[in-house]
Every structure is written in C-alpha cells, then in structure tokens.
Amino acid sequence: MNVKKKKRVLTLVGNPHNVNERGGSNYFFLRAAQEVNFLDLGVSTQPKKLSAYRIIWNIVSWLGRSEFGGFQYSKLFLNRLFAQSSIGSNPTEFISRFQLLPPLPWKQNWEVNYYIDATLRQIFDDYGLAARVGKTIKEDALRREKEGYTKAQRIICMSSWAATSVVNSYNISSSKVHIIPGGANLREDLLPDIDIKANIPESLNPLRLGFIGKNWQRKGLPLILRVAEVLHQRGIAVEVAVMGVSPQDLPKHSLMKPLGFVNKSNDIERFVELVSQFHFGCLFSLAEAFGISNLECLRLGVPVLANRTGGIPDTVPEGLGFLFEPGSSPKIIADLLESFVSHPNEYYQLRDRVAARAEEFTWQRTVEKFIKVWQGSEEFLYDATKR
Fold first, then answer.
1. Model confidence pLDDT, tens digit, residues 191-200
2. Within the chain, which residue ranges are assigned CATH 3.40.50.2000?
3. Which of 34, 217, 313, 325 has its CA 20 to 30 A from that of 79?
4. In angstroms, rounded to a whole number, what is the distance separating the alpha carbons of residues 114 and 11?
C-alpha cells in the first residue's frame, strides 16, 4: 500500500516568503526551518482577494445584528482563505501562526500545532481591538480558538505572557504548552563578517539611545525623548537615534536623530553599522506581544532597555538589559543611564556580556528548540519554565 508521507507545513494569514510582511518573522522562521528540513513548505494566502467578501459580510452583519468589524475572524474568511492553500485532504502536520488556522473542523489525517505570540483574548484586550470587532464574532472566534487549542498537539508560545493566557484564560493543559521565543529578523547568511566587540562605540559621549520600529507612539518613543531631556538637563550629551520611521512622520525634537527606514535585506551592512553604534536599544511599548527589535539589538551586541509589558520580558534575558515597570518616570530610567556614563567600565562589561551571547538570538536557535520539542524534550514546557 502506498502511504503518503505527512508533510509539515507552516500556515498563516499572508505570505511567509515575503520578508516585508509582519516584520519578516514568518519569513525568517520558515527559512531557518527549511534549512534543516524541519518544515517542508510555507503556505501563502492572499487575504486581499477577499475584500469583496469583507464588504458583503460587514453589510449583512450590520443589517442582521447591528454589529460591524471582525471579518478576519469569521468562518467565511477563514474557509475562503484556507481554500487558497490547496492542502485538501492530504496528510498534513501544521504549524499555524494564526490562532484560527486551519479552520475547524479538521481532517482526521491532520495534526495541528500552533506557534503564537499572543492569544486572541490578549489581542482584543491588550491591544484594544475589541472595540473594532462585533460582539457576536468576537465571542465565536474565542470559542473556536479554545476548541483549536484543545484539539491541538502542541501550542508553542513566544513568551510566558502568551503561554499564561493559553493555560489560564482558555483552560488548556499546561502539558502541551511550550515557550520558545523567536529570533532576530536578520539574514544570518547576509550579515557581514562582524567583530561585535570591535563595533562597540569608543565613547559614551554622546549617549546614544536607539529606537527601531514603525509605530513610534505605541512603542514608547515619547518616553525615550523625555528620558533624553532629563539627561540633557543634567549636562549629559545624548541623542535618540530613530530607525524605521520616515522623518516627516516624526515630531520635531532637538535631541532626536532620524535615520529613516533601512532595508535589512538590501542594506544589511548599514543596518548593522547603525545599530551597533547604539549604546542601548529601547522598547518602552504600551502594548507588545513580543519585541523583535530587542533581539536584533542583542544579536548585534547591544544591550536593551524596555518596559515589562506583554511578551517583552522574554526578549530581555537577565544580565543583558533592564526592564522597567510600565509608567516608570523618565527620571528613574535616566538615573540608570547616568550611572553608566559615570562608570563607563560597567557599561563595557555589560556590552561584553551581550556580545558573548549574541548568537543565541537567531531563528536558527529557535528552530533547534522546536526540533528538541518534537523529539520529546520537556525543557521548554510552560511548567518547566515556571520552576
């Protein structure tokens, strides 16, 4: 009898072959996994092709229930989207990067695993999206999400924040919930031959606080600027280097140095050069499921400062950066930075610690952990990380 081999497939909303989607995380995960034959393929879907269905669905939803929004969580959207994948009834093992894919019900010869950075409940509540999703579709999506987690083989979470939600908010057995953070969204094969220690800035004058991201308000740039103002008032030379945002979209500030958007695929050497000159990468987000920019800084030997928000703590290993409680005053953060300016040897010791562990923050390391889990390792189980 000819038995088909079960393929291991990455499924998601969008195109995992496009490095510019979702910051490139799906692209880098798929690439690293295929390099070691852990994933067979990544399924590309095109949600924009369903725009007409979105309009009709919203009209019907409004006329029938006086509700609007949430088409992306509807059965119509998910079934139409998944039909683009041509998976059919073939024996398949899925690793899903979306909480509601593949849509229920599943074929008997399917095995489903999830790799998520947040649950839908967290997305609705912490990101404030609940107000933009109809009550009926929200409740139905949460019900289907829980059913999927219950039937899944494994739920891999990028952070303990997401894993805690899976276990506590959805009442899922912790015996199948694992925590495996993602990696820096950088092409390791394109990285120039860099000596991380050689790229350390020779001086802390000026102190350079780095910011990487598009959503500068949510990710805490205003707080970084206030910290810089406090330092400036104390007579400390400081600049805030901002990457990923067009200068015209930023507020004017004398202590800010806009770097614009740097394409990591086409100009990796410039990206490395600029980030390496940060003294600290900063991510003081109001809401954040993970924090890839922290890992990019650490991968290039730069320590980080961040809020203890959402999944961010899993991107700041102990001894390689500093976490602050949300709402911390700029003065408290400035006090820490001033201590390093006053004692530069302590800063360079910190930088050496980060450099020694820089290679831990790659998607290749992430995939190595996935392979261990598939081999039966309990090292990354939710319960194990809580001991």
1. 867 667 667 8
2. 7-183+363-385, 196-360
3. 34
4. 9
